[in-house]
Amino acid sequence: MTSVPFTKGHGTQNDFVLVPDLDGSRPLTTDEVRLLADRHAGLGGDGVIRVVPTARAEEAEVRAQAGDAAWFMDYHNADGSPAEMCGNGSRVFAAYLRREGLVEEDAFRIATRGGSKAVTVTGEQYAVDLGPWCVVDPEGARRRGFDSTVRSRGGTELPALRLDLGNPHTVVILPPDFDLAELDLTEPPAVSPHPEHGTNVEFVRAIGQGHIAMRVHERGVGETRSCGTGAAAAALATRWWEGEADDNTEWTVDVPGGRVAVRTLPDGHVELAGPAVLVADGTVTLPD
Fold first, then answer.
1. Which residues touch 179 (CB under 8 Å, ≥6 apart)?
2. Quick check: is 134 catalytic?
3. Among 56, 144, 202, 270, which has the minimal tally of Cβ within 10 Å of its Cβ?
4. How far, rounded to the nearest angstrom, does the alpha carbon of residue 259 sit from its chain's CA centroid?
């Protein structure tokens, strides 16, 4: 048996187990990730983040695209699968780096499988430049107004839009007569055409100008209380459908776990801002 230190944190109740590996000597196995994330037999979390020096990252691609980002957010979904990026996780990761004195600046970069990401800290708010984004099939989406369909469990098939934010998203804007709270997301929604590597699925309710509410089913996890890149995808899809006007660049996104802010940037990037909370520290015993 091996004793491993951990920190538990969340961003708008999207929660994570952080495991420091400051010399890069102990990668986590798929089974260990699943155990740590298990809400009955482990610590419980939507994902697991290994904190490791970028120079010690096992993946050459991560090192090659990291630039001056000294720390790598080695992120895995609760089912053990590695993911390119996690918006809420990146804020929690940044909060951990700051608390531990691993970075001291208010502006710094972190390495992810989806590239290097810029973080800016203002008080208790962490803003992350998620990088460039795109509609997966813009021509097809313009012809029909959508490029895929989604059906939740027991629900009606609805048009959707696919976006790439370094990880895959499929966004549905609910018609007025659909109740966001009544959707059954206990099973993965059926997406057609089915993405080869899976997708996060966001269901969106428009509230007002620049204000939406969202629920999300994350690939490899299930429904979560929040999803950072999902909130950005939901705002961007809504903006794309409404028309990308210059005065339509800032969004408030309500999720079951709280509220985040999304802002489109002039360079074609998108920024996510919100809180990050570290709630517990301890050690956990993993089987050898």
1. none
2. no
3. 144
4. 14
Nearest CA to 274 among 12, 17, 1? 12
Confidence (pLDDT) at 152: 96
86 among known catalytic residues: yes
Fold of 134-267: Diaminopimelate Epimerase; Chain A, domain 1 (3.10.310)
User: Which listed CATH number (3.40.50.300, 1.10.287.610, 1.10.8.50, 3.10.310.10) goes with 2-131+275-286?
Assistant: 3.10.310.10
Element (H or E) spanning 142, and its range? helix 138-144
Candidates 66, 86, 163, 185; catalytic one: 86
Q: What is the pLDDT of residue 245?
A: 63
pLDDT tier for residue 138 given thresholds of 50, 70 and 90: confident
Reported as type and span, the H/E element at residue 35 is helix 30-37
Q: What is the pLDDT of residue 246?
A: 67
